[in-house]
Amino acid sequence: MTRAQLDKKPVDVASMFDTVAEKYDVTNDVLSLGQDRLWRRAVVKAVDAQPGERILDIAAGTGTSSEPWANQEIEVVPADFSLGMLRVGRRRRPDMAFTAADAMSLPFADESFDVVTMSFGLRNVADPETALREFLRVTKPGGRLLICEFSQPVNKVFRTVYSNYLMRALPPVARRTSSNPDSYVYLAESIRAWPPQGELARIVETAGWQRVGWTNLTGGIVALHLGTKR
Predict the structure, then answer these.
(1) Which of 71, 86, 211, 213 has its CA 20 to 30 A from that of 23?
(2) Is the dihedral of CA 202, 208, 213, 218 positive or negative?
(3) Can you tell me the distance from the alpha carbon of 162 to that of 41, in angstroms, rounded to the nearest whole number?
(4) Mean pLDDT of the region 169-177
(5) Judging by beta carbons within 10 Å of its beta carbon (0-12, 13-18, 19+), is residue 180 exposed, middle or buried?
């Protein structure tokens, strides 16, 4: 089985997600103790999409994150660079416009979308700032960015408990639920190595986004980073 390393070579990351595609949504639900559903609802609320807007949902995987907008008949393009994920998504929701796309080199024209959103994907990109600049390029003036990503719990005691869960409890649970348990060792490592909220906000700003801020979810386990295009 393929397992990505922290150098995040695109071919390794894509291959790893190909191997977990079939059970990906179920495994995430188990490992997050159902919190992933609350996080997805928080994303939809924060985006506040309006009729007539067009959304790019990059790193959409099997399309679970895109479905709320599709169900509201708001145009959404679920995009991912894992063909295995896209195949599962197309089988589940043939009505959605699944598109193969690399976050660092998007196959879309300038100023194509009102909103770009990415949930739990930026952490897997080899160069996040390059991806954020690409998101800016394809966003219309005045358009919005929303990044939903694992972050750092704000309470020190809770942070220690959470870190222990990631490295000790997560891999054994993944062995029971995932088709590629080793990929969840990478997941734990990548979460621990990811920058905290303020540092990520600075990266988003450096990429050219304006009015950048964040909201913590579940005590900072996850954070929503928002920005707008000038």
Answers:
(1) 71
(2) negative
(3) 22
(4) 68
(5) buried
Other beta carbons less than 10 A from residue 73's beta carbon = 8
Q: Is 52 helix (H, G, I), strand (E, B) or coil?
A: coil
**Cβ within 8 Å of residue 79, ≥6 positions away:** 56, 57, 58, 59, 60, 98, 99, 100, 101, 106
Tokens of 84: 């295995």
DSSP alpha helix (H) spans, the chain = 10-20, 24-31, 35-47, 67-71, 83-92, 128-138, 156-164, 170-177, 182-193, 197-206
Type of residue at 12? D
Q: Which amino acid is at 184?
A: Y
pLDDT score for 70: 97
Higher pLDDT, 35 or 223: 223
Q: For all residues of the chain together, what is the average pLDDT?
A: 89
Q: What is the pTM of this model?
A: 0.90
Burial state string for 136-174 with b = 16 or more CB within 10 A and e = fewer than 16: bbbbeeebbbbbbbbbbbeeeeeeeebeeebeeebbeeb
Q: Which residues pair with 222 in a beta bridge?
A: 150, 217
Residue length of the chain: 230
Burial group, residue 33, by CB count within 10 angstroms (0-12, 13-18, 19+)? exposed
Output the pLDDT for position 11: 82
Which of 145, 172, 190 lies closest to 16, judged by CA?
190
Q: What is the DSSP string of 100-119?
A: E-BTTB-SS-TT-EEEEEEE
- Tokens representing 187 are 């997941």
